[in-house]
Amino acid sequence: MKQIKYKTFVKRKNFSIISWIRKSKEKTYESLSAFLSSKNIIPPGKEYWEKAINFYNDSLVNEANAHVNTTDDITDVKATEKTSSESLDKKNMIISVMKEKIKKDALSKTSSSKSKRKRRRKSNTENITE
Asked: What is the mean pLDDT of the segment spanning 65-90?
């Protein structure tokens, strides 16, 4: 059977050597060559492999550094959340007090208008009966 060039295989199958390195248990050039040879593909040169494995290792270091920075950011956010949650509690208390005042004012206004309506009704009924 005829073997396919590595570049053609990459284009046709969207093969990524970096994702293969992430998924494989053995991260060696020989294991990559065996994998590609079993699929009748000509493996890339060792220089290509070295570039890919160096890129993979660099990305692992960058991810580890980013993880450390993220945990520091998370602790900072939690500290600010505590202070902001305290201020939110105060704001919520003020809002609830204001709502209660508004309800009391609304009740006092409605109770006086009801009494006026009752008086009006009485006066209207008195006029009709007379």
From this structure: 64
